[in-house]
Amino acid sequence: MGLHEEIERRRTFAVISHPDAGKTTLTEKLLLYGGAIQTAGAVKSNKIRKGATSDFMEIERQRGISVSTSVMTFAYGGRLINLLDTPGHKDFAEDTFRTLTAVDSVVLVVDCVKGVEAQTERLMQVCRMRDTPVIIFINKLDLEGRDPYSLLDELEEKLDIRVRPMTWPIGIGATFKGVYDLHRRKLRLFQPDKTKVESTAVDIADLNDPEVDRHIGREAADMLREEADLVNGVYDPFDRSTYLAAKVAPVFFGSAVNNFGVKETLDTFIEIAPPPQPRPTDQGLVSPEDPAFSGFVFKIHANLDPNHRDRIAFLRICSGRFQRNTFYHHVRLDRSVRFANPTSFLAASKNVVDEAWPGDVIGLFDTGIFKIGDTLTEGARFQFRGIPAFSPELFRELANLDPMRSKQLDKGIRQLTDEGVAQLFTQTQGNKKIVGTVGELQFEVIRYRLENEYGAKCTFHTIPAYKACWLTSEDPQVLDEFCRIKAGQIVLDKDGNRVFMAPSAYILDLERRNNPEITFHTTSEFKTALADT
Ligand code: G4P
Asked: Taking a C-beta distance cutoff of 8 angstroms, is the pair 23, 13 a contact?
């Protein structure tokens, strides 16, 4: 098979959800269809126990599990599917955001009782930033959930995307009888059964067929007819190009734990989801069809076990063919690197791979040469863009408890931030180190790892900081002047970019209004913006 065929076969995506909506359960069912696992229960929930903030065994357990399920590759319907896992715990949201840069589409799981939740909104914002196509799976229809119309309205409103129901539920909770597949014109009957592989399907060319009454009863059949008419009248017919442009999200209703509605979602996924897409670099788009290999690191996994200090860098291949034992160009370090044992993640076990293609994710044994966002090429000097470094939400000053070990502390915190555990800022006045994270748990992880891996002891002090804002301006003098006046609140990120540490929402708003020539970037794309200025 040539490059073109390899690309056309591949679909690389992630399942995302607010914790507890059913991501792990749906993933497991998808893997059962793909033959990647044989029995239900094989994929352990990768959630850290709720409320755990300092249980390191729990963190370690989560990390241990998450490496083996980081990428799950399976074949289904003539496609080779790479399913990228995302951590369940909200404190690891930044990991999830980065993983989303390595996929071509997503399946979003929404709980029909709870509707759109906080994390659902944040994840969708990231998808929208890069126009990632989304399929929505509304889960737990076996529970007394909300009315489907109100759920669909909420999705459109809160997620800022149009929706198109592909199936329609017949009843909900105790009265849930199944779904009508509006796309394939099939009635799928629901029988709660967690071991079942497929639901019973009845072909229905015309909903007026009395067969429908026979299966679901007269009353439900009449209601379905009415609702199907309404849905087809209210929502535009499904159009693949608007889905691929991330303007509309097809919606499925089901119950993951009962394996209901999952197969339709997967079948539609392989029919409509995009193959590996071009990716932006500082020198324009790179097409997967470009025969020269390129890829970027979107995740680094370190082993917490002090006896196994290995790190794995996860590389998404963006163009050409990757080959084992071949020299590639590490763009940031401007040097050649070669990998003897790159691994793939076929069937959740690690195998050495000789070659890999666009859309694939491989694990590279990392001796400390990689940072999140690093680019590998066949020699070209471009860098992939848009690898997010989100504005952290919690900030603490890092205080050294053992002055004899400050070198180790310095090295440790730099390496951990290279891995993307947290972000590091240094004060321009006073040299204090500020660590920013998206969750409380990261401070515990950092303290634990600095002590266990680097022999350095530290603690964290609370500081008044609300948001880190990367600064850009068309006029460098305006920016210099602002940084001079605000020197006390200006810090440098690890790449030496100037960042305004806003103490409160009020002050940030004020500074924005007082300094219209300066842009205050609070999300990831600041790197793109900096490259543009
Ligand atoms: P997550 O990865 O998104 O965090 O969610 P996960 O799949 O772990 O599911 C969260 C809980 O919701 C689990 O229950 C799971 O069994 C349940 N669940 C998933 N799909 C459905 C569904 O279609 N209907 C119903 N009623 N429940 C569903 P748990 O009690 O937290 O865990 P477990 O002991 O069942 O594993």
From this structure: no
In order of 33, 179, 217, 226, 456, the CA distances from 208 in angstroms are 33, 16, 13, 10, 73
Q: Is 359 in the pocket of ligand 1 (CB under 6 A)?
A: no
Q: pTM score, two decimals?
A: 0.84
Which of the four pLDDT bands, split at 50, 70 and 90, describes residue 526? very low
Q: Within this chain, do residues 164 and 230 fall inside the same structural domain, yes or no?
A: yes
> What distance in angstroms lies between residue 10's CA and the mean position of ligand 1's atoms?
29
How many domains in the chain?
3
Condensed to tens digits (0 to 9), the pLDDT of residues 156-182 reads 999 999 999 999 999 888 888 899 998
Residues 237 and 114 in one domain: yes
Ligand 1 contacts CB of residue 255 (under 6 A): yes
Q: Which pairing describes strands 394-400 and 433-437: parallel, antiparallel, or unpaired? A: antiparallel
- Would you tell me how many other CB atoms lie within 10 Å of the CB of residue 432? 15
The C-alpha atoms of residue 157 and residue 199 are separated, in whole angstroms, by 32
Ligand 1 center–CA 327 separation, angstroms: 45
User: How confident is the model over 495-522, as pLDDT tens digits?
Assistant: 888 999 999 999 999 999 999 999 998 7
Residue 21 CB less than 6 A away from ligand 1: yes
The range of the structural domain enclosing residue 21 comes to 12-66+84-91+100-272
What's 373's domain CATH number? 3.40.50.300
Q: Is residue 7 part of a domain?
A: no
Asked if residue 18 and residue 135 are part of one domain, the reply reads yes
Pocket test for ligand 1, best of 43, 91, 257 (most atoms within 8 A of CB): 257
Mutational pocket test of ligand 1: of 23, 25, 29, the residue with most ligand atoms within 8 Å of the beta carbon: 25
Per-residue pLDDT, 65? 52
Q: Is 28 in the pocket of ligand 1 (CB under 6 A)?
A: no
Packed helices 118-129 and 148-159: angle between N→C axes, nearest 10 degrees: 50
- For the Cβ of 143 lying below 6 angstroms from any atom of ligand 1, the answer is yes
Which domain-ending residue is among 377, 409, 436?
377
Q: Say whether both 268 and 291 belong to one domain.
A: no
Q: How confident is the model at residue 347 (pLDDT cuts 50, 70, 90)?
A: very low
Statement to judge: residues 366 and 461 lie in one domain: no
